[in-house]
């Protein structure tokens, strides 16, 4: 596949690896923020190619993993309302809530449908005017504009039975929160497709306030090795900056149309991240103008107090403090077919990735 | 979750583009991207074209990488 195969060539990967070995002197910790990056690192075995001075830790960039228990429990409560159809991206339905999961509720007769795109959800609403269709909106700046576009379309086409339960989140506040909390990080490998939308200026504060370098990276092995080399060069020269490795997709100003749609439809709010707690202005809620599409305003449900699964260390894993191998449940009580925590559910969750590619 | 894949644009409608990924055809939404033409590559994410792939930038990155490879010690 063009723009994929050439970034997987062994010789190229190895030549960047050699460059890295000679460039890297200091012992450093780099956080790959995005679950897609975690997956690529393990899938292609990149850690084996890094010099011993470079340590990679996984961050909180897996939307399914960081969605709060309360969000899952709310979705579950919605699914029990008569004449409601829940639509969701696939991963989410297996996440254990406090008592059950959407998958189990579906088996019990709730109308829960998996969609590839939010536009399918809109189509379901169009075809079922006597039902309320609630889309579970998860994802960061890459995915939130899609939900926003669907809401604008619903307004334009006068589809009054389409609603969104938003757990959409934004990336920079959580990255800053981790640094402020004292997690040892010397630089960030930042998600390429977030910056495809936002551009690169969202990370300026990490450089100016926290003194850390950020390199926006693509998702193929050559991309990631090059991004790591760029961070090493920054750190060795003592000049942190925001740089883009993923030049073929990311422009410094980002996708202006998507930014406009995003800021029209959503406002920032304080939001709860699983395992990390409440982070100020890190979540997206529907703006007043689009209140009629907001599931939270339309449906009031009783949600029991959320409980985190016993023994699960997802929170520490999402902060880069522990790896799945530190967890007593990993690979025993907690597996992809029977996940205890959210990090095992998603294909790009750190635990799911470790389980799949463990040797 | 925020994975996007490169897809080649075959034809463009008002709000959608017909794209192919390998040999699979898909109708991508253009609600978030303008100025898309047949022959372009777009990044497809959950049904939407979210950005174009810049052919010149891709070539430049590849040129630098190949340069690095050329100077690799035998």
Low-confidence stretches of chain B: none
Strand content of chain A: 15-25%
Q: If you consult CATH, what is the topology of chain B? A: SH3 type barrels
Q: Nearest-angstrom radius of gyration of chain B?
A: 15 Å
Low-confidence stretches of chain A: none
Question: What overall geometry of chain A do the principal axes of the alpha carbons give?
Answer: globular
Compile the SSE list and pairings.
The complex is a heterodimer of chains A (359) and B (74).
Chain A: H1 10-23, E1 28-34, H2 35-43, E2 54-61, H3 63-66, H4 69-79, E3 84-88, H5 102-107, E4 111-114, H6 118-127, E5 132-137, H7 144-156, E6 162-166, H8 172-181, E7 187-191, H9 192-198, H10 204-208, E8 213-217, H11 221-237, E9 242-244, H12 256-265, E10 266-273, E11 277-286, H13 295-298, H14 314-318, H15 342-345, H16 350-357
Parallel strand pairs in A: 1-2, 1-7, 3-4, 3-5, 5-6, 7-8, 8-9
Antiparallel strand pairs in A: 10-11
Helix pairs in contact in A: 1-11, 2-16, 7-12
Chain B: E1 5-12, E2 16-21, E3 24-29, E4 41-45, E5 48-52, H1 55-70
Antiparallel strand pairs in B: 1-2, 1-4, 2-3, 4-5
Question: What would you note in describing this structure?
Answer:
- The complex is a heterodimer of chains A (359) and B (74).
- By secondary structure, chain A is an alpha/beta fold.
- Helix content of chain A is 38%, strand content 18%.
- In chain A, the strands form three sheets. Chain A has a five-stranded parallel β-sheet.
- In chain A, α1 runs parallel beside α11, α2 (35-43) runs parallel beside α16 and α7 packs across α12.
- The mean pLDDT of chain A is 95.
- In chain B, 22% of the residues lie in helices and 41% in strands.
- Chain B has one helix at 55-70, and strands at 5-12, 16-21, 24-29, 41-45, 48-52.
- Chain B has 74 residues and is of the alpha+beta class.
- The chains are: A alpha/beta (359), B alpha+beta (74).
- At the A-B interface, α1, α6, α7, α9 and α12 of A face β1, β4, β5 and α1 of B.
């Amino acid at each position: 596949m063009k723009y994929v195969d050439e970034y997987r060539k062994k010789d190229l990967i190895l030549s960047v690896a050699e460059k890295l070995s000679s460039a890297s002197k200091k012992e450093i910790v780099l956080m790959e923020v995005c679950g897609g990056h975690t997956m690529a690192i393990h899938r292609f075995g990149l850690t084996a190619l890094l010099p011993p001075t470079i340590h990679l830790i996984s961050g909180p960039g897996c939307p399914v993993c960081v969605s709060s228990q309360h969000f899952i429990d709310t979705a579950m409560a919605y699914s029990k309302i008569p004449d409601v159809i829940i639509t969701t991206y696939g991963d989410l339905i297996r996440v254990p809530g406090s008592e059950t999961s959407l998958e189990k509720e579906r088996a019990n007769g709730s109308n829960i449908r998996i969609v590839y795109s939010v536009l399918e959800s809109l189509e379901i609403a169009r075809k079922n005017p006597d039902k309320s269709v609630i889309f579970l909106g998860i994802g960061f700046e890459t995915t939130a504009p899609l939900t926003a576009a669907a809401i604008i379309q619903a307004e334009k086409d006068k589809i009054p039975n389409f609603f969104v339960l938003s757990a959409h989140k934004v990336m920079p506040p959580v990255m800053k929160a981790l640094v402020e909390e004292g997690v040892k990080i010397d630089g960030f490998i930042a998600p390429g497709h977030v910056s495809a939308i936002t551009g690169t200026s969202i990370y300026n504060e990490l450089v100016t306030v926290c003194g850390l370098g950020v390199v926006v990276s693509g998702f193929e092995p050559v991309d990631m090795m090059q991004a790591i080399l760029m961070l090493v060069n920054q750190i060795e020269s003592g000049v942190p900056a925001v740089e883009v490795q993923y030049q073929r997709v990311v422009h410094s100003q980002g996708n202006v149309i998507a930014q406009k749609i995003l800021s029209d439809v959503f406002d920032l709010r304080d939001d709860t991240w699983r395992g990390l707690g409440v982070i100020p202005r890190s979540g997206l809620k529907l703006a007043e103008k689009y209140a009629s599409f907001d599931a939270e305003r339309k449906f009031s449900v009783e949600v029991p107090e959320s409980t985190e699964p016993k023994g699960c260390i997802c929170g520490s894993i999402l902060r880069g403090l522990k790896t799945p191998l530190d967890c007593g449940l990993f690979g025993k009580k907690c597996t992809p077919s029977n996940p205890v925590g959210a990090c095992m559910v998603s294909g790009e969750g750190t635990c799911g990735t470790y389980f799949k590619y463990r040797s | 979750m925020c994975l996007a894949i490169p897809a080649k644009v075959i034809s463009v409608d008002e709000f959608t583009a017909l794209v192919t990924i390998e040999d699979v055809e898909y109708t991508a939404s253009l609600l978030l991207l303008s100025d898309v033409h047949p022959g372009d590559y777009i990044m497809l994410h959950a049904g939407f074209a979210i950005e174009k792939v810049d052919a010149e930038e891709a070539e430049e990155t590849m040129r630098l990488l190949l340069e690095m490879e050329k100077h690799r010690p035998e």
